[in-house]
From TrEMBL, chains A, B:
Residues 62-311 form the TauD/TfdA-like domain. GO terms for molecular function: dioxygenase activity. InterPro entries: AlphaKG_dependent_hydroxylases, TauD-like_sf, TauD/TfdA-like. This is TauD/TfdA family dioxygenase. Its cofactor is Fe(2+). Keywords: Antibiotic biosynthesis, Dioxygenase, Iron, Oxidoreductase. It comes from Streptomyces filamentosus (Streptomyces roseosporus).
Length: 341, 341
């Protein structure tokens, strides 16, 4: 039976900007020895011709840095849901080598899951030059457009910066727990609607025989824990028509209200990644967005900025029904598979 | 922009049992002269070979009883939403003759609209012997089962009793406005969900090319008036699977809560119709249900009870968006047309 939480969320997960503005609280710096062991692990995997995703954490031990990643995951899951790791060793590496370094780090964060209908565990966040989010099949990681506040499907999204754009691309994070507390105070009549869930467009990545959109809750409360998933607004807005319906005004109001609260200046922090920075956000308790980015003054295209993304589920993570995050354990194989990048 | 009402509804529409228990407040009795003019009008229409639905109200004047029907409609729309007219002259008439009498009365209530995908303006509420409501195509008026609280699509539902069952068939009415007031007090977190709407099964009567279910609000607030539509729970429960989805727990909670409040003893009144009784309910402000009925002690079948139903929109009725009652103006022609009764 569903339980709609009517008390504010307390503890470090319900933060405002002022609580997290001192980024040293959630920043972890890899020292030279840590960088060296990560790089050497990656080189060894490459020399053996192994696929990093076929390996277990214990087979890739990091005696110096494993503890840092464990503290980082603890901060994500049980703290503010926000962490930055600086100094990931990617300087001078090929894209394939950087993938392997990211894989080594990923093994120490948790279990990486497929992020699209093709089964990719690492995706490139860059301007893929295949169109805009208002098209019917494009996803956020494939464009250089601004993205509104949203969460990703698994427990944690990890973004590793390889190159930054000439301009833009700032990253913003807000606490979904604090958004809930504000909703409880200002718009309690909308709460049930978030628990009931809305439809999200698969963007052409639906598994064979399934409808072109899926239903997902925005908030769920289980085992005394509130969990949030707020997927991209564009997917919520394009889903109803794909199903032959329309978005009701109350649904639009609920989405607008959530985003308006997230976007209040007192509620979010912003940052800009430099090469080697790894930004981590906990999707259970935070939402994030990014600014548009470009090499050009007109913002049209970008050929520079390049992040890699992992979707990670932590070990012994919180339990909640699949309805709270349909694709927490990764996207299934799609009926139609998109072109290779 | 949607507005979610956060104040209780006031006035006669928000009633409890104690406010309406004296049925003389909302009972209208046709005297012998009224009965005679209605019967004579119907006989004249039949003698001319006219279809009553092709006629206008002005062409079928009722100099003695028109005012009674006007007061009745005013009580429905602006009062308690509940009325009983006693003494409709149907004794000894054939079914076709009773249809015409009902049509004459209907013209003086408002505009009758099609109630199914076949375009019928009068439907027979009886045990059609075509199965149960848990089947995929059966509608409430076609079975002898108990029906939970619900509303019909137009402003007014008028039920004319031709014959009553040996047992059962009691009719219950509750104020949807009072249900709203209780929700506001006890479960305000669910309100937005009712405005957002849920899906209802077409039961095979979808217009060509449309999905097998439609989305409809439960409450809507427009022009300072709250309007309710609560369609049959069975249709809400069977719709998601037809679309390839599921009913979320929060949606189930919202439906359960609505029905639990309606079913509280202090909230509804009950009655049992006798031949010639016409029960009227205003679907904008009330919900109704009926008990199972049967000729048999085991409740299996019924060959006796027979009501006729009209769906009526009143002249200059309240305005609200189509989403609040998708079929207020009648059902469109269905892709698949059911068998004639």
């Amino acid at each position: 039976m569903t339980h709609i939480l009517k008390e504010p969320v307390t503890g470090p997960s319900a933060w405002r900007r002022a609580d997290v503005e001192d980024s040293s609280q959630w920043t972890y710096i890899l020292d030279e020895k840590m960088r060296k062991e990560i790089l050497e692990s990656a080189e060894k995997i490459a020399a053996n011709g192994d696929d990093v995703w076929s390996l277990s954490r214990t087979s890739v031990p990091l005696s110096r840095s494993a503890d840092l990643f464990a503290r980082c995951v603890d901060e994500l899951e049980n703290g503010r849901g926000l962490a930055m790791v600086r100094g990931v060793p990617i300087e001078g590496l090929s894209l394939e080598e950087a993938h392997t370094v990211f894989g080594v780090v990923g093994l120490h964060l948790g279990k990486a899951v497929p992020q699209n209908g093709r089964g990719d565990r690492v995706v490139s966040i860059k301007d893929h030059g295949i169109g805009r989010l208002n098209s019917k099949t494009v996803r956020g990681y494939q464009t250089n457009e601004a993205l509104p506040f949203h969460s990703d499907a698994p427990d944690i999204a990890a973004l590793l910066c390889l190159q930054q754009a000439q301009q833009g691309g700032e990253f913003y994070v807000a606490s979904a727990m604090q958004i809930y507390n504000t909703l409880l105070e200002e718009a309690p009549e909308l709460l049930g609607l978030y628990y009931a869930g809305i439809f999200y467009d698969y963007r052409g990545e639906e598994p064979p025989g399934e409808p072109p959109a899926y239903k997902n809750a925005i908030f769920g409360y289980h085992n005394n824990q509130l969990t949030c998933r707020y997927f991209l607004r564009q997917f919520a807005d394009s889903a109803p028509a794909k199903l032959g319906f329309f978005q009701s005004e109350a649904e639009k109001l609920a989405l607008d209200t959530f985003e308006e609260i997230a976007a209040r200046e007192e509620n979010y922090v912003s940052m800009r990644l430099a090469p080697g920075d790894m930004q981590l956000v906990d999707d259970n308790i935070t939402v994030h967005r990014r600014a548009a980015y470009s090499d050009e003054a007109d913002g049209a295209t970008d050929t520079t900025r390049h992040l890699l993304r992992l979707w990670i589920n932590v070990e012994n993570g919180r339990e909640f029904p699949q309805f709270v995050s349909t694709h927490r354990w990764g996207m299934k194989r799609a009926a139609t598979v998109q072109q290779k990048d």
